[in-house]
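Oxidoreductase iron-sulfur subunit, Gordonia paraffinivorans NBRC 108238. Tokens?
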Amino acid sequence: MPGTHANVEATVSLSVDGVQRDVTVDTRTTLLDCLRDRLGVFSPKKGCDHGQCGSCTVLVDGRRIISCLSFAVMYDGATIVTADGLADGGLHPVQEAFIDADAFQCGYCTPGQVCSVVGMIDEAKGGHPSHATEDLDPDASAEPLTDDEIRERMSGNLCRCAAYPNILAAIRQVVGG
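Tokens:
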């Protein structure tokens, strides 16, 4: 029938929080929906579903992404780590810092914030500049992150409770300063 589109499915193999998972999804399924609806991984949250709040942030092959804007089929063979998967026999230092600094209130954004902090630290260590980076010299990554740099790098993660000062304190605890 003209104008009718059949659903196309694909099987995707993902390592999610250390567990190898194969799942068949419609090729239009987002990674977030695949994780939550198909695999029962509820750490990444569905906030805005438009890539504007960051509550769905996960690490894919070590890089932070907004999972509500990414198709699951794009990540066949990838390693995905959620906030739940960061803990390895104990809390990750970022998770511990969030607790120490009381960096959450309702907690809805916290898994995305935590994954984003881990990704942000790795990006900074790797010499990836942000809009607030004063010196674009690759050796500048050895410089400590300023508060403005941290705020800029975390600007894609929103907290409706406005726990930003405590989130910044938690990040400071992890990166020093």
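The mean pLDDT is 92.
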